[in-house]
């Protein structure tokens, strides 16, 4: 998976928006005005990184299993993981982790907002 394919995976999430609140080199993805992923458009040491929210226990397990999963860069390392896009993390797992991140965001919303999200059409 390359950076453009990751972008497509993020923007294809139901209700996802894409913006540049941190400058023109960092893409941010949100659902219900809450961030679920962000990634830099410039490589770091030849790598492109995607940052996603993650259940704390799952975050640790992933870091232990994959070289391409690291504690969240510039974020709360308990709840965020950085995924090296072209690494030992499969394309399928990257997509699963994007969806897991969305699920984590939605789960923490008030019940009314959760219902509002669940009633969105998948455009």
TrEMBL record:
Membrane-traversing stretches: none
Keyword DNA-binding belongs to the record: yes
Keyword DNA-binding in annotation: yes
Keyword terms, alphabetized: DNA-binding
GO function term, MF aspect, one: DNA binding
Name of this chain's protein: MmcQ/YjbR family DNA-binding protein
């Amino acid at each position: 998976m390359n950076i453009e394919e990751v972008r497509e995976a993020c923007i294809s999430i139901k209700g996802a928006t894409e913006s540049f609140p941190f400058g023109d080199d960092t893409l941010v993805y949100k659902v219900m005005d809450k961030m679920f992923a962000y990634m830099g458009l410039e490589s770091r040491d030849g790598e492109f990184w995607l940052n996603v929210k993650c259940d704390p226990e799952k975050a640790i397990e992933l870091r232990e299993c994959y070289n391409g999963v690291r504690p969240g860069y510039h974020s709360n390392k308990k709840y965020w993981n950085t995924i090296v896009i072209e690494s030992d993390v499969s394309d399928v797992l990257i997509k699963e982790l994007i969806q897991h991140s969305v699920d984590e965001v939605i789960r923490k919303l008030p019940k009314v907002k959760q219902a509002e999200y669940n009633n969105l059409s998948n455009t």
